[in-house]
Amino acid sequence: MENKYIITIARQFGSGGREIGKALADKLQVPFYDKELITMAAKESGMDAEIFEDVDEKATNSLLYSLSMGLYSFGNSFSAMGDLPVNDRLYILQHKIIKKLAENGPCVIVGRCADYILRERDDCVNIFFHADMEYRKRRAVEVRGVDKARAEQVVNKTDKVRANYYSFYSGQKWGFAQNYDLCIDTSKLSSDEIVSLIVKYLELKK
Fold this sequence. Notes:
About 50% of the residues lie in helices and about 10% in strands. The chain has 9 helices and 5 strands; from the N terminus they run βαβααααβαβααβα. α2 crosses α5 and α7 packs across α8.
């Protein structure tokens, strides 16, 4: 099918959201952006990509710092961007890049508050992937190589970091159903079935 939508994906850790997003992009034959956003931000800023990787999808440790500097106004121009924490600089760069990618046409974007950043567009379909803890623990061990004894801790901690990031930069609640068009339990269907389900939704939405 011809896809005319920008699809944003938020996902619980271990739910397989990234992999499903990639399969969906391949099915729709549109660009896919996840870690690629870090590379693009590094290229634009001239900073080392490894520095950005360490803070990707993590909120700054100092909201008070940003407020006191008068810089907490994302989407606007910053005269003192170099004074911002690295987390904020990365968010600002990714904010700009995500908007530009959306202007270029249909694509699939994972994380980075993309649903919030593109909230004023009417050609976005926002998806949240979730699953029960046992399923996510198993995938964390089998796919991500997480130590079995620490799997639940890693899952919970990663989700907390993602939730804090989303809340910090959007002022909204991560995983709150009202923020998304589709909320899908990835433990109930295969990846192929989920991709087919989303494609069908896109067809009906047209």
